[in-house]
Write a structure and sequence with these properties.
CATH topology of the largest domain: Serine Threonine Protein Phosphatase 5, Tetratricopeptide repeat
CATH superfamily of the largest domain: Tetratricopeptide repeat domain
Helix content: over 70%
Distance between the termini: 38 Å
Number of helices: 13
Number of domains: 2
Low-confidence stretches: 1-9
Shape: globular
Radius of gyration: 18 Å
CATH architecture of the largest domain: Alpha Horseshoe
CATH class of the largest domain: Mainly Alpha
Oligomer: single chain
Largest sheet: none
Structural class: mainly alpha
């Protein structure tokens, strides 16, 4: 019990008052639709990290041009997540994650109700918890609520992302009384994501992890093998190598 109280005392708030949009988004150089088109074009070239940074800035400009445009905030958070995955400096990763949470909060304030806002704020909270573990305990209940809302309103977001991220959260979070972890509840969530987008490798990875942790090793290997097949077939995606590596590691 003393250890539990000590751990709780060390927790930090996952959500803070975000800065005004004008503080984090550059002044728009064009109209919202033109900025979004330019951002999407830069995002398609994100294998060049500079293009991911350009996409992020353009998405933020689009959000400032039209603060009610949920896809603009979503695009900025997605670009920040991509950058975090390639940043070696822990301090910079932590700042990018905190900035992503702020963008998600501004999305909720200006563009809600929107499943895009709900999903990407949940994703940002997860990134922040990974980089700043002291925020994890506070983030978990917010993430669960946001992902349930997004899954109910628009389950295909990000290739079944609400169900996939909820499955991963339930698989990896501590169980009661410390957190919402529940490996049995994770399996139908992972399967729901794979039903929505069976060709998206992260969905098969989530299914594989859920099956393995629920005591179905043979089915898990089949899901991991399918994830590997899909990832290697889609080598043009900058994330495909990481997905393939994760599948190979699980199959060893």
């Amino acid at each position: 019990m003393a250890a539990l109280l000590l751990a709780l005392a060390a927790c930090a708030h996952a959500l803070r008052t975000p800065p005004p949009l004008e503080k984090i988004a550059p002044p728009p150089e064009a109209g919202t639709e033109q900025l979004l088109a330019r951002a999407d074009e830069a995002w398609s070239r994100r294998a060049d990290l500079a293009q991911a940074e350009t996409a992020e800035e353009l998405y933020l400009q689009a959000a400032r041009a039209d603060p009610r445009n949920a896809p603009a905030y979503a695009g900025a958070i997605r670009a920040k997540a991509f950058r975090i995955g390639r940043e070696r400096d822990g301090g910079k990763r932590g700042q990018l994650a905190a900035d992503a949470v702020a963008v998600g909060q501004l999305c909720e304030q200006n563009a809600a109700p929107s499943p895009l806002c709900d999903y990407w704020l949940a994703a940002a909270l997860g990134l922040q918890a990974r980089e700043r573990s002291s925020t994890g305990h506070d983030a978990l209940p917010h993430m669960v609520d946001l992902l349930h809302k997004a899954a109910a309103a628009d389950p295909p977001v990000d290739h079944g992302g609400p169900h996939r991220l909820l499955a991963i959260l339930l698989l990896r979070a501590p169980g009661w009384p410390m957190g919402p972890g529940d490996v049995e509840a994770a399996l139908p969530e992972a399967r729901a994501a794979a039903t929505i987008a069976p060709g998206y490798p992260p969905n098969q990875l989530a299914v594989g992890e859920a099956l393995r942790k629920n005591g179905h090793p043979d089915e898990a290997r089949a899901a991991y093998a399918e994830a590997l097949r899909l990832a290697t077939a889609d080598s043009a995606d900058p994330d495909s190598a990481g997905w393939a590596d994760e599948a190979r590691a699980a199959l060893r």
